[in-house]
From TrEMBL:
Domain called Amidohydrolase-related: residue spans: 215-379
GO molecular function terms noted in the UniProt entry: hydrolase activity, acting on carbon-nitrogen (but not peptide) bonds
UniProt cross-references to Gene3D superfamilies, sorted A to Z: Metal-dependent hydrolases, Urease, subunit C, domain 1
GO biological process, one term: organic phosphonate catabolic process
Signal peptide as annotated in the record: none
Any matching Pfam family: Amidohydro_1
InterPro entries: Amidohydro-rel, Metal-dep_hydrolase_composite, Metal_Hydrolase, Metallo-dep_Hydrolase, PhnM
Protein name per Swiss-Prot or TrEMBL: Alpha-D-ribose 1-methylphosphonate 5-triphosphate diphosphatase
Species this chain originates from: Kinneretia aquatilis
SUPFAM superfamilies: Composite domain of metallo-dependent hydrolases, Metallo-dependent hydrolases
NCBIfam families according to UniProt: PRK15446.1-5 (NF011984), PRK15446.2-3 (NF011987), PRK15446.2-6 (NF011990)
Length: 387
């Protein structure tokens, strides 16, 4: 990777464990961080950040916003390549340099959430590699009650099209939907289903759940063979956490309650919570507040879930509203998720790592991304100071 060296000065650099005030950083020609607080830039062009935060580029393990780019309204689909380009730009502007686009394989549940469309969207994201601004990756969400999804998921794993796999079970009566009424309300409100269609889908899920164990074993084994990290989803009790760990899961997405989050953390599974939950101060489904897990010390990662812009906003809220240290809050969107996914070349500002960096201004008192570098290359810039 060849980039133009750049000398960033007068920055508030946020390292994994400390902050450096009025500091400097040198991006090397190889797209990596060459030095922190060097004596000089060695002739590289200089850019003053005027005291802005300089954070590591954010790593988002779970965001399904690409689905809304494809289907902004129920059953109104845009071309897949067009949607992929748009989500790439949107994540760059949000300061997310490594997004894992979460795609649900749940046949007929929603327009874009059917197996054929989801499969083609995975391939469209792969085609984006030649022109992407950031490092786009694919998170396949396998709904275990979908009898027809398994060959699609196994095929994509064999193609090398999957970077992260999560196991989902949205059967009413457990997990995210403790009661049938909450499932029906979600399907009607979010996906435009009729009440009758939602009830029918709930019944189909409950029947398919009876035969799901064999499918889960098959997909987890294939992911292991292909070296793809795996996560459980909506864990609702410690026993489920241990079951998924024994199957090879390394992460627990959206644990339903604090007891389960504690169990996942203690078992060595990285816990993933929603940045929108932090911003809003609670869960949209009435489950655990992400803040409770953070304050209890059992939160490892924040993800955008469905709104990329909430990642930085959550860091800002944790620092200015909740009193967390800036390094601690930043780790939740950078080093924590990078390590959970096995990415050892990014996630913090350190010499030798990728120069995935974001500078943060505060126009109107709100944290806002001003500049983004991915692998040392500038991919987004807006001049708040000059306005």
């Amino acid at each position: 990777m060849n980039t133009t060296p750049l000398y960033l000065t007068h920055a508030h650099i946020v390292l994994a464990e400390q902050e450096l005030h009025d500091a400097s950083l040198l991006i090397g020609a190889d797209g990596r961080i060459a030095a922190i607080n060097p004596e000089s830039g060695g002739g590289a062009p200089e850019l003053s950040l005027s005291g802005q935060w300089l954070l590591p580029g954010m790593v988002d393990l779970h965001c399904d916003a690409v689905e809304k780019e494809v289907e902004p309204r129920a059953r109104v689909l845009f071309p897949l390549d067009f949607a992929c380009i748009n989500i790439d730009r949107r994540n760059a502007a949000a300061g997310i340099t490594t997004p894992y686009h979460a795609l649900s394989f749940a046949h007929a549940e929603w327009g874009v959430r059917n197996n054929e469309t989801a499969t083609e969207l995975v391939r469209a994201l792969r085609r984006l590699k030649a022109q992407e601004l950031i490092d786009n990756r694919v998170h396949v969400r396998y709904e275990i009650t979908d009898l027809s999804a398994l060959p699609h998921v196994l095929g994509l794993l064999d193609e090398g099209g999957v970077d992260l796999l999560s196991i989902m079970d949205h059967t009413p009566g457990q997990g995210q939907f403790k009661h049938l009424d909450s499932y029906v309300a979600y399907m009607m409100g979010n996906h435009g289903s009729s009440q009758q269609a939602a009830l029918q889908m709930a019944e189909e899920k409950m029947q398919a759940r009876l035969s799901a164990d064999e499918r889960v074993l098959a997909v987890m084994e294939r992911a292991k063979q292909r070296g793809v990290p795996t996560a459980s989803h909506d864990d609702d009790d410690p026993q489920r956490v241990l079951t998924m760990k024994n199957l090879g899961a390394r992460m627990s997405e959206f644990p339903i309650n604090l007891e389960t989050a504690r169990a996942a953390h203690a078992a060595g599974l990285a816990t993933i919570l929603g940045a929108p939950n932090v911003m809003r101060g609670g869960s949209q489904s009435g489950n655990m507040r992400a803040l409770d897990a953070i304050h209890a010390g059992v939160a490892d990662c924040l993800c955008a879930d469905y709104a990329p812009a909430t990642m930085l906003a959550a860091v800002d809220a944790l620092v200015h509203r909740e009193g967390l240290g800036l390094p601690q809050a930043t780790r939740l969107v950078s080093l924590g998720p990078a390590r959970a996914a096995g990415l050892n070349d990014r996630g913090e500002i350190a010499v030798g790592l990728r120069a995935d960096l974001i500078s943060v201004a505060r126009p109107g008192g709100q944290a806002a991304v001003e500049r983004v570098w991915c692998g040392g290359k500038p991919v987004f810039a807006v001049d708040y100071q000059g306005r």
